[in-house]
Amino acid sequence: MISFFTPAYRKVALSFQVLTLLLPLLGLGQTFTGTYPFTGVTSSTGTTDPTPVPTATGVTFGSFSAVGTPTNPNATGRFSFTSWPVGATDNSDSFSANGAVDVGKYYSVTLTPQAGFVLSLSSITFTLQRTGTGIRQYAVRSSADNYTANLPASIAPANSNLSVVAGTIFQVSDAPASNTVHLGSTITVSGAGYTNVSGPVTFRFYGFNAEAASGTFSIDDVKFTGSTTAVNAPTISDFTPSSGPVGTSVAITGAYFTASTTVAFNGVAATSVAVTNATTLTATVPSGATSGALSVSTSGGTATSAMPYTVTVPTVAVSPSSLTGFAAAVGAPSAAQMYQVSGSALNGTSLVITPSNTSFEVSLDGSSYASSASIALGGSSTLVATTVYVRLASAAATGSPSGTIANTNGAATTTVAVSGTVVAPTVAKRWTGAAGTTSWFDATNWEGNTLPATSDDVVLDHRYVAAKYTVSLSSGATVAQSAATVNSLRIRPFAGDSILFVIPATNTISFIASTSVAPASGALALSLARTTAGDTALA
Question: What is the pTM (predicted TM-score) of this model?
Answer without folding.
Answer: 0.51
